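Exercise: predict the fold of this chain.
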Amino acid sequence: MKNYILIMIGLLSSSLLFAQNAHFTTQGTIEYEKKVNMYGVIKKAINKDNENWYGPAFESYKKTQPQFKILKSTLTFGNNKSLYTPVKDDSPPSNSWFSDMPLAQQINNVYTDLNNYYSITNKKVFDETFLVKDTARKINWKITNETREIAGYSCRRANAIVMDSIYVVAFYTDEIPVAGGPESFTGLPGMILGVALPHDNVTWFATKVVDIPVAETSLKAPAKGKVVTYAGLKTTLTNALKDWGEYGKKFFSIYLL
């Protein structure tokens, strides 16, 4: 009995020592890689009304373009605020209309104040730029027991449905105790380092986390664009795309992500 008590005291002491020495990242930068399965995106856009034109165009695209389009972005965070910024894509233009599809672009610069759960998003929609000022998107996450390592951090999986129909898989780490993430994905008990929209053929995964001090002045919210709320943008898009049929519905959901 005495030996058992000594062992338990030793284990408890070790646990307390680990907890005291554990390091949690509360500010820094994260590099993300957005990966779009262009073949999957284009294939889903083909239907009986456009297959005569889309079909041959898709076959031509596959001969000259890779299956996956890779785009990069950064998330700077500190003081429970974050700024998500796309990195300019310097790859040669493909000269294909498919490469200009909204999902294959990076249309959002997102500032999020997690203290007040408020966001400001600079969003490019066709040839117009909007500045969406509203509360941060509330997502009803369901946390699972599945784990994986991303950018050197142990992450736990969570699932959700956003905008009534878009299935989202996210991986977050409590080693970065900030409820942020790429784009407008937030609200988990730790930083989101991976996001997948399985039915939309796109993922965002962190490739590098840098733990460095972040000055408040580097977290400046975007300021350019036509100011709207999320509801106002939704109304504008509804009116603009009402005659676009199923194709318009796809654009609608992408522009509201």
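Check your answer against the key: Helices lie at 2-21, 38-45, 51-64, 230-240, 245-256.
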